[in-house]
Amino acid sequence: MATYAFRLNGRAVSADSWDPSQPLLYVLRNQFDLHGTKFGCGLGQCGACTVLMDGTAARSCMTPINRAAGRAVTTIEGLGTPQSPHRVQSAFTTEQAAQCGYCTSGMIMVAAALLLRTAKPTLEQAKQGLAGNLCRCGTHTRILRAVMRAASA
Ligand code: FES
Ligand code: FES
Fold first, then answer.
1. What local confidence, expressed as pLDDT, does residue 105 receive?
2. Residue 42, burial from CB neighbour count under 10 angstroms (0-12, 13-18, 19+)
């Protein structure tokens, strides 16, 4: 058993694992009860499991726990609070940019990462930034409206 220390939503934490290749997604959901990060495909293809690692979007289903060691991980729970939501979270609420909501936390995390690298993206840049995240409900129009709203906030 090895212990992996990292920062999670602003706190210093450590996770124990027998397997250095255990996906960070499983650790987040099972050891830290952070269920906002979703298991979609488990293959790095849908983006439902997106978190921030040192401010960059990362697919937690494809990120082994040993790669999280020493890094700063942010999940949807750490992005904002109900009292003080992140501007992307507020914009998704305002634009009602969800149907079933399964893709939503991944969409919000990838949008937050986009705005960290490009403060004022064009619509085309927003489309490119979110292109790897799938929404099975077809909510893309409202999601893009929310990203553009957040960018102008
Ligand atoms: S669950 Fe990670 S990309 Fe689909
Ligand atoms: S809102 Fe259902 S998958 Fe996107």
1. 98
2. middle
Q: What is the end-to-end Cα distance of the chain in Å, rounded?
A: 46
pTM listed for this prediction: 0.97
Residue with tokens 């990120």: 63
HSE value, Cβ hemisphere, 13 Å, CA-based, for 7 = 11
DSSP-derived letter for residue 62 is G
Q: What residues contact 3, with CB distance under 8 A and at least 6 apart?
A: 14, 15, 16
104 CA from centroid of ligand 1 (Å): 13
Mean pLDDT of 38-42: 98
Whether 139 is in the pocket of ligand 2, judged by its Cβ within 6 Å, is: yes
